[in-house]
Specification:
The protein has about 130 residues and is of the alpha/beta class. The protein has four helices and five strands, in the order E-H-E-H-E-H-E-H-E. The longest helix is centred in the middle third of the chain and has 18 residues.
Length: about 130
Amino acid sequence: MNKKLVICASASFENEIVDWKNKLENNGYEVIKYPTKINDDLVNKYKKEFSEHYEAITRTDVLLALNLDKKGIPGYIGAGVFAEIAFGIGLNRALKKNIEIYYLNSFPKDAFPYSDELKLWQELGWIKQFRP
C-alpha cells in the first residue's frame, strides 16, 4: 500500500508543487492534498482550502514541507507552513499519530521568528530532511 502524503508549501510555488506531486507519485506515494493557488473569492475559497488541508493532515502518513527559496531566503518556511508542521507534530505528540514530517531544504539560521523551534524539532527528530 502506498503511503499517503500531504505537501505543504506556499501556493505561489504552484509549478514546483505540481512537479513534486508528479515526482512523488512516480515514486509510489499517494499525494492526497497539496496547496492550490486561489485566484478569486479569496475569503470563501481560503476557508475551504484551509479546512481541507488540515483535515488531510489528520489522515496522512507523510507531511512534506516544500521549503523553497522565497523573498530572497533559501529554504523559506512561511507562517502557514510552520503552522502545518506544528499541527502534524501536535497530532504525533498528543494523539500518538505516526506522521513522518519532512522538509526539503535546510533552514537558514535565525531567518524566522520560529527558527529556534525548527532547530529544536530537528534535534528531537520530530522533523527530518527529505531524501528522495
